[in-house]
Amino acid sequence: MSLALACSARQLLAPSCARFSALQARSMAMMKPMTPEEHSVSRTEFWEKNKNLGRPISPHLTIYKFQLTSILSITHRYRVSYGQNNSFLGTFPVWLNTVQELHFAAPLLLAAKFALAWPVTFHLFNGMRHLAWDMGHGFKIPDLYKTGYTVLGLSVLTALMLAAL
What we know:
This protein is an all-alpha fold. It has a domain of 97 residues: Fumarate reductase/succinate dehydrogenase, transmembrane subunit (3 helical TM bundles of succinate and fumarate reductases, Up-down Bundle), CATH 1.20.1300.10. The chain is built from seven helices and no strands. The longest helix has 29 residues.
């Protein structure tokens, strides 16, 4: 039975496979062979051209403008990898007690409590945003920015309220 299914599947996919291989052959770039001398000249011209144009050698992140969506994604991933392990969440009351026992001045105590509360509130609200995405809502660019700013605002306000307790 499985042999019959495999054969029928091959016959159904054969026309599409042939079409794909023809497309692949048409889009393939042809490279001409180069001698070692031609290669060194080509490589030298490449670096001289980039130097004259003022291009950095390895741009990596320097060529990208950070956007709200990328910053929130990086922050969320960092929060998941750092804050979700048991060493932080399991000892959260211990951390809070340690901060209170340091007898900081009021502004410094508020800042320390905010530093403990903000990652948790950010993760909570950004998790809700991800749940909305899982349901298929909010994928248009204006919606992404609206929900991003909403997550930031709500997480900061909630963390400030928790830190003020």
